[in-house]
Write a structure and sequence with these properties.
Blueprint lengths: L2 H22 L2 H7 E8 L5 E2 L1 H9 L5 E14 L2 E14 L2 E16 L2 E12 L2
Parallel strand pairs: 1-6
Antiparallel strand pairs: 1-2, 3-4, 4-5, 5-6
């Protein structure tokens, strides 16, 4: 496996961990997954810092179910990587779950040997 292939596999595992944390509200996982400088942009256009996003998870503001990757591609540029793709997510509004498709861009930065999320930007796609 080439160095880029190995790094893409590591990033894919971090992305899966992000989706697991979204589904469970695991704030400890977010602490590890997010860079201190993360900007997390929801499909609603709301942008949050690390502290704001984790507080939203902790207080039940963000309620997500399973997330599935439809397709994606990661390009590595030194200590930075960009993942672009589509995901399907179960979200909740007013206590009712619903499915959404999201086009997202994830920017990862390698900090102390670990890939951490620096930017997440999401746009909801009508289905």
């Amino acid at each position: 496996m080439s160095d880029d292939s190995t790094e893409r596999a590591l990033i894919a595992r971090r992305e899966e961990a992000l989706y697991d944390a979204l589904a469970t509200g695991d704030t400890d996982a977010f602490e590890d997954l997010f860079s201190e400088d993360v900007t997390y942009v929801h499909s609603t256009g709301i942008a949050e810092t690390k502290a704001e996003n984790i507080a939203g998870q902790r207080h039940g503001v963000h309620r997500h179910g399973p997330t599935t990757t439809v397709r994606g591609h990661t390009r590595i540029l030194g200590r930075t990587a960009i993942t672009r793709g589509l995901i399907d997510m179960i979200d909740t509004a007013h206590g009712e779950p619903f499915s959404i498709r999201i086009r997202q861009t994830l920017v990862w930065v390698k900090e102390d040997g670990v890939w951490r999320l620096l930017v997440r930007h999401a746009t909801r796609i009508p289905v």
